[in-house]
Amino acid sequence: AEAVLGASQREASREKRKGANVDRAEEILQRAEAALATKEYAKVRGLAKDAHDAVREASLLKTARGAFASLQLDGQELRTLGADVGAFEPTLVDLGKAIETNDLGAARRLVADARHAAEASRAAHFRAVMERSLQTILANAARGLDPLVARQLLQEVDDAVHLGKSIDMQTLIDKRMADQ
Question: Residue 155 pLDDT > 80, yes or no?
Fold first, then answer.
């Protein structure tokens, strides 16, 4: 029983050093130490297992907090790009609430949902920019825009969108046509 308790205590200390909130596990470990003092070995083993589970949950919540911070950066990037974050924002708010209440199950589900919503928003934004660019190119085809130049312009738009930059297609076309 002492070995099991010691292992759980080391695990709690290790995760605490890594930044996880192991308060619940520490409370359980204190009860396990009290049970050990009264020689209730079966209770010590049960409490040590409970402490192990609490440490694991604290570690997973720490991971969810990290994912939340990363997703917040994704949200800022999407807003900077001008992408529609309508489906992403409410999921991010719900994720914050789940983390605050230490609801690990909901937090893990919402991390996956938020990642999916962010990627869907990013993809929709990319498609919209490419469609607008193609329409601008087609509108300028009658002015004698070379198909090879049009292909190069689309590649430039693709590169700019992936770098998070905006590009004025009409100005770019006018400049290229003046250079021809």
Answer: yes
